[in-house]
């Protein structure tokens, strides 16, 4: 059995990229909101990290949707997903969440950068100015809805796969939580990486704040992965076969142990703990740690998608 | 500002709980037998007698011709297991693999556009290819792995008991007619006088993967010769 082609394989790597990007977008937004509300307050708009998140979140969600559309066998019929709804379909409900998420995301970005946009516009386009002012008045509501939508989007990437009842590794209640948490940590990593690339201070308050959340997040993720696989193995039957197959010595076993556990979780955790004690953080530390966790989450998505489809009931 | 934010969050929380409770009860209703609308008098099903089947694949060929199924994909497969026993007393076992027309069909549940649907009149699970966008969610969701993308229409396809070809003309599904040993029986589960119901009452049958809760309507009569398998 080859790692990328086997009988029963329906969804290929484009779906993994889509799931990765959707989770990343949600995570970046989540951390940008946290930064604003707990650390930066009204200064958020000139933080390179918030700016990075405001660029990454929409680009990732558009990219993800684009990949989803191109992966349809009838991409030109895409509009039918928007017109026809099926309330029992996770995909249908997820598309609804995605659409709402994009609208609220742009409203939120407009709120955050309202002063900047107003400066740029000057006296032109008074309608836009008025709209912006109105949006700023609604900021509390917009932020609240956006947090809820971002969390729904992150969990949806897991529910999409856990609805596949024929595959014990995917049809698993821990999967949505695992995808949500790893999506958040990929968002944190993308925000950090984007922020330092935009010349943010690698030793600044933003980095310290995000790293502070990242350590518990990685620990929770390790706990969830452990629960996920121990749960499968203890269930016996095909669940056990699926779990042992995935974690064994094949290609995907290596991806899991070296890529997901080693590079994606252990190294960032070690770096973060070390950075916590050492006095200051340099650009290279932050960038390398963030890249490792990004790659780790990306590999986790592929690992789950492919090994999940290898063993049916 | 603080107060309004808290009120807002409470409101959203209540709304979300409401929506999810509503959604949960709705699926329960849909799955339960207590559907308000009167059920139709017809519910088609099929039996494959594995004792009678000789694995000739005439059913597969007939289906290919009648339903214009291109090479490379198929609506029905006959899976062969064996040989069992010593030469010259060897035997094989054959089992039909095709859409089970599940009562609680996972493919229908996951389809985002409603292209995969259950025909209320006949209980047949079918595909409305005008609505299908080819997301392949149904293909991944079907635990029996019988759906595929039709290479010409680029939409999801599978056995529909010849709904659009032969049933529309009042004929039996073509595989049933093509079978030289009469291993296939097709009929209405709700009609106690049908050959199908009589057969199911006369012989013990099994269905695949019932533990998944799909309630399939393709019945198999198990082979009695050959080895006992664990
Ligand atoms: S067997 Fe597969 S395609 Fe047929 S109704 Fe059941 S889930 Fe759908
Ligand atoms: S491939 Fe077509 S029938 Fe299947 S889930 Fe997608 S839209 Fe529905
Ligand atoms: S035509 Fe009848 S005997 Fe031949 S493979 Fe099909 S079911 Fe079996």
TrEMBL record, chain A:
<dbReference type="InterPro" id="IPR005614">
    <property type="entry name" value="NrfD-like"/>
</dbReference>
<feature type="transmembrane region" description="Helical">
    <location>
        <begin position="283"/>
        <end position="304"/>
    </location>
</feature>
<feature type="transmembrane region" description="Helical">
    <location>
        <begin position="218"/>
        <end position="237"/>
    </location>
</feature>
<dbReference type="InterPro" id="IPR017566">
    <property type="entry name" value="NrfD"/>
</dbReference>
<feature type="transmembrane region" description="Helical">
    <location>
        <begin position="15"/>
        <end position="35"/>
    </location>
</feature>
<dbReference type="GO" id="GO:0042279">
    <property type="term" value="F:nitrite reductase (cytochrome, ammonia-forming) activity"/>
</dbReference>
<feature type="transmembrane region" description="Helical">
    <location>
        <begin position="47"/>
        <end position="70"/>
    </location>
</feature>
<keyword id="KW-0812">Transmembrane</keyword>
<keyword id="KW-0560">Oxidoreductase</keyword>
<keyword id="KW-1133">Transmembrane helix</keyword>
<feature type="transmembrane region" description="Helical">
    <location>
        <begin position="177"/>
        <end position="198"/>
    </location>
</feature>
<comment type="similarity">
    <text>Belongs to the NrfD family.</text>
</comment>
<feature type="transmembrane region" description="Helical">
    <location>
        <begin position="90"/>
        <end position="113"/>
    </location>
</feature>
<dbReference type="InterPro" id="IPR052049">
    <property type="entry name" value="Electron_transfer_protein"/>
</dbReference>
<protein>
    <submittedName>
        <fullName>Cytochrome c nitrite reductase subunit NrfD</fullName>
        <ecNumber>1.7.2.2</ecNumber>
    </submittedName>
</protein>
<feature type="transmembrane region" description="Helical">
    <location>
        <begin position="249"/>
        <end position="271"/>
    </location>
</feature>
<keyword id="KW-0472">Membrane</keyword>
<feature type="transmembrane region" description="Helical">
    <location>
        <begin position="134"/>
        <end position="165"/>
    </location>
</feature>
<keyword id="KW-1003">Cell membrane</keyword>
<dbReference type="Pfam" id="PF03916">
    <property type="entry name" value="NrfD"/>
</dbReference>
UniProtKB/TrEMBL annotation, chain B:
<feature type="domain" description="4Fe-4S ferredoxin-type">
    <location>
        <begin position="44"/>
        <end position="72"/>
    </location>
</feature>
<dbReference type="InterPro" id="IPR017900">
    <property type="entry name" value="4Fe4S_Fe_S_CS"/>
</dbReference>
<protein>
    <submittedName>
        <fullName>4Fe-4S dicluster domain-containing protein</fullName>
    </submittedName>
</protein>
<keyword id="KW-0411">Iron-sulfur</keyword>
<feature type="domain" description="4Fe-4S ferredoxin-type">
    <location>
        <begin position="90"/>
        <end position="121"/>
    </location>
</feature>
<keyword id="KW-0479">Metal-binding</keyword>
<dbReference type="Pfam" id="PF13247">
    <property type="entry name" value="Fer4_11"/>
</dbReference>
<keyword id="KW-0408">Iron</keyword>
<dbReference type="InterPro" id="IPR006311">
    <property type="entry name" value="TAT_signal"/>
</dbReference>
<dbReference type="InterPro" id="IPR017896">
    <property type="entry name" value="4Fe4S_Fe-S-bd"/>
</dbReference>
<feature type="domain" description="4Fe-4S ferredoxin-type">
    <location>
        <begin position="123"/>
        <end position="152"/>
    </location>
</feature>
<dbReference type="Pfam" id="PF00037">
    <property type="entry name" value="Fer4"/>
</dbReference>
<dbReference type="InterPro" id="IPR050954">
    <property type="entry name" value="ET_IronSulfur_Cluster-Binding"/>
</dbReference>
<keyword id="KW-0004">4Fe-4S</keyword>
